Amino acid sequence: KPMRLWGGRFEGGPADALTRLSVSVQFDWRLAPYDLLASRAHARVLHRAGLLSEDELDRMIGALDDLERACKAGEFRPTVADEDVHTALERGLLERLGTLGGKLRAGRSRNDQVATDLRLYLRDHVRTIVSRLVELETALMAQAEEHAETAAPGMTHLQHAQPVSFGHQLLAHVHAFARDIDRLRDWDRRAAVCPLGSGALAGSSLPLDPQAVARELGFDSAAPNSMDAVSDRDFAAEFLFCAAMVGVHLSRLGEEIVLWASQEFRWIEMDDAYSTGSSIMPQKKNPDVAELARGKSGRLIGNLMSLLTTLKGLPQTYNRDLQEDKEPVFDTVDTLLLVLPAVAGLVSTMRVNTAKLAESAPDGFALATDLAELLVRKGIAFREAHEAVGHLVVWCQVNDKTFDVLTDDELIKVSPHFTPDVRDVLNVAGALASRKAHGGTAPDRVREQLASLRDDVDDQ
Ligand code: ARG
């Protein structure tokens, strides 16, 4: 007869269809280490409350330690008959302790237990995710350092706009990931509240000490409202948002890498270790890592929508719907831990085609703004300068010329403002260096930006 935590008032067993619907151990088993951690803290609080003798506590802790060892060694496994991780672990405890094993459940419900386990699991895994994000930032920053002076076409609307430092563009992505890290750190402050002691919903009549349990488990405080504590999944939804935002940032970087690696751009060459081939076309080298980063953002966003939809409309307090919180959370953690190292590897091993970037940086009359701003410095209204440079662009297009090959006569013919000295600003290096105010693409500013980002990473 399968062991259940709630057999007493039932005659006969549950229907197979119910069991199959209700069982969660196939996915919540990964909470086992956290459930055991919380169990040890709970055993100690029962002891302090006078509900477990010294000897009983020792045997309880010994059995929990042994159970943990057996779980790690794969000797103890959940069976299909265990409804969830809590049921499986109580079975393991009973196998080791007999009746004494049944004492641990006093003052505790799966409702406060599962909410505690999931918070412990997430706080732990968010630390790992942050480390992976830092590794990706580090990879982007190393390339940015290499390419602070590398001129590249800067784009808006995917059209050549103004030349930029390629390092500046890479650091733009680092800032996005830095905000993600900041969000995850801030998330932890709100996640650091411990539900244990809330029981099913109303707290416990036993003299437990939720604040002490909270401290022992590394939380900042115990939940101030037992009803909120067992039904609150804000921490899970907020984590899924933070992760979805990481996904969006990975997707945008992935999209750029796909473009950069294309024949039309040829800005980068991917390392063989981070590209894939085709089963039919022998010449192919495909950016699958970048595409999967882009593609998997879909499930990260979906997981957030899934949980928000589960939560909306739930009355207080615990409802079984809440069991649906785990798979989206686990899937998001797994997805990030798969994608982040692959993208970091792709970025750190890609070779940047500086010659191609430099050659195309001025394309599309990308220095037009520099020309207009030169006229402004000479006292001409920007409106007029904009107009004059626009005419020059059209003249060049009609005559199939670029700015850099124009003669003095040709310049003057289009507008009397275009005296020979305008040529001084018609070079890409000058254009980059001139954007030297805070936040601009001048290589010196890019290096400062990099230093400050590195300081932030070191502080983390
Ligand atoms: N597996 C359940 C969950 O994930 C554990 C809590 C079950 N509580 C209950 N009263 N049925 O939410």
UniProtKB/TrEMBL annotation:
Q: Where is the Fumarate lyase N-terminal domain?
A: 15-302
Q: What is its main location?
A: cytoplasm
EC number(s) recorded for this UniProt protein? 4.3.2.1
Ribonucleoprotein in keyword set: no
Report TM segments: none
Pathway given in the UniProt record: Amino-acid biosynthesis; L-arginine biosynthesis; L-arginine from L-ornithine and carbamoyl phosphate: step 3/3
Where it sits in the cell: the answer is: Cytoplasm
Catalysed reaction per UniProt? 2-(N(omega)-L-arginino)succinate = fumarate + L-arginine
Enzyme class comes to lyase
GO BP annotations, alphabetical order = L-arginine biosynthetic process via ornithine
Coiled coil regions, renumbered to chain: none
Instruction: Indicate the family of this protein.
Output: Belongs to the lyase 1 family. Argininosuccinate lyase subfamily.
Indicate what this protein is called per its UniProt record: Argininosuccinate lyase
What lineage is this protein's organism placed in? Answer: Bacteria, Bacillati, Actinomycetota, Actinomycetes, Streptosporangiales
